[in-house]
Specification:
Belongs to the major facilitator superfamily. Monocarboxylate porter (TC 2.A.1.13) family. This protein has 355 residues and is an all-alpha fold. It has one domain: MFS general substrate transporter like domains (Growth Hormone, Chain: A), CATH 1.20.1250. It is built from 16 helices and no strands. Helix 1 runs parallel beside helix 4 and helix 4 runs antiparallel to helix 5. It is globular and about 60 Å long. The termini are far apart.
Length: 355
């Protein structure tokens, strides 16, 4: 994609994230209605097929990469992401945060392995073989996941329209939605631009390439430790400082100019980012009145934050202008503002529980 700008390339990943989120409402309602396996099977087929189609792309064939990686993978993720999180919430109530953290730690392990694996395959065997080998591995893992996962539904599955209206009028929940919108504008900024930022700052390309693996290595701890603490002191009491620390990590990029600093920021940001992402489903479940509306609450949150998830990276890309100053400030301040709204959400929830 040498002919495309950073902002244009960012639309591919942003579209993938947005579709993963925007499908949340219909997928959440279908999940609550008992269609867990239907969603997982269809989503797995679309996701794996899109990877195989991606292997057909030629150099600078932007439209095919956008269709396969942006749209196809996004739809596949949208159909499988929420059900996979929701089914974990079904099985655990006392230590739900830790359970979801352990489950999502697989994403960090994969995030460490896959960039290194794919880079080696691309270097030694080329794009086609590299992508197809990755597609074959993921297809096998999806088959195993579909066989092993089981839902545990309550006796009453249907969610009425009145329940949706009740959710949308729930002030603590809607404040959390607003906070999520602001956070999504900056949450994924380092994932998209940290490699390019490292190269522009004169960091060796070898170190720059491994920044994503460092991010995911930090994420392994971020998915476990914050969730472990959340089960003991409360999800809000952990996710709020995690959000502010994520903002601090992003803003700290402005002062980094050597390999050690890049590695440290990658690890710390990875831990904080993963902490927020993995605690969100548990917190949404905590905000739910009963187990039958967990999927719907998650779905509404993901759908309403989708536009911010899609717009955040292209906006940051347009602000880069060579030195990354304004793009980094934009991402960091978005996270900080979102953290402030989470404080409001916690206050409203405490007031609601006292009534």
């Amino acid at each position: 994609m040498t002919e495309k700008s950073a902002s244009e390339i960012a639309w591919i990943g942003s579209c993938q994230i947005a579709l993963q989120f925007v499908l949340g409402l219909p997928v959440g309602k279908a999940f609550d209605a008992g269609y867990f396996h239907h969603l997982m099977i269809v989503g797995s087929v679309i996701y794996c097929s899109s990877l195989w189609i991606l292997s057909l792309a030629k150099p600078n064939q932007y439209y095919l990469v956008f269709f396969a990686q942006g749209v196809g993978l996004g739809v596949g993720l949208g159909l499988t992401f929420l059900p996979a999180l929701g089914v974990a919430a079904h099985h655990f109530s006392r230590r739900r945060g830790l359970a979801i953290g352990i489950m999502t730690s697989g994403a960090s392990i994969g995030g460490i392995i896959f960039p290194i694996l794919l880079n080696r395959l691309l270097f030694h065997h080329g794009f086609v073989v590299g992508v197809r080998a990755t597609a074959a591995l993921i297809t096998g893992l999806m088959l195993v996941a579909n066989v092993l996962m089981r839902a545990r539904y309550p006796e009453t599955r249907a969610v009425s329209k009145a329940s949706l209206r009740l959710i949308l009028s729930d002030l603590p929940y809607m404040a959390f939605v607003l906070g999520g919108i602001l956070i999504m504008l900056g949450l994924f900024y380092p994932i998209f631009y940290l490699q390019l930022y490292s190269v522009k700052r004169g960091i060796s390309e070898k170190i720059a390439f491994y920044t994503i693996s460092f991010v995911n290595a930090g994420g392994l701890f971020g998915r476990l430790i914050p969730n472990f603490l959340a089960d003991r002191v409360g999800s809000f009491n952990v996710i709020i400082p995690v959000t502010f620390l994520t903002a601090a990590c992003v803003l700290a990029m402005l002062g980094v100019s050597n390999s050690g600093g890049i590695i440290a920021i990658s690890l710390l940001y990875g831990a904080m980012n993963a902490g927020f992402v993995s605690m969100t489903p548990a917190l949404l479940a905590e905000l739910s009145n009963n187990r039958s509306e967990i999927g719907l609450r998650m779905g509404v949150w993901f759908t309403l934050t989708a536009a911010a998830a899609m717009a955040g990276q292209p906006l940051s890309g347009a602000l880069i202008q060579g030195n990354f100053r304004w793009s980094t400030v934009f991402a960091g301040l978005s996270l900080f503002a979102g953290g402030c709204i989470l404080i409001l959400s916690r206050f409203l929830l405490m007031r609601k529980r006292r009534v």
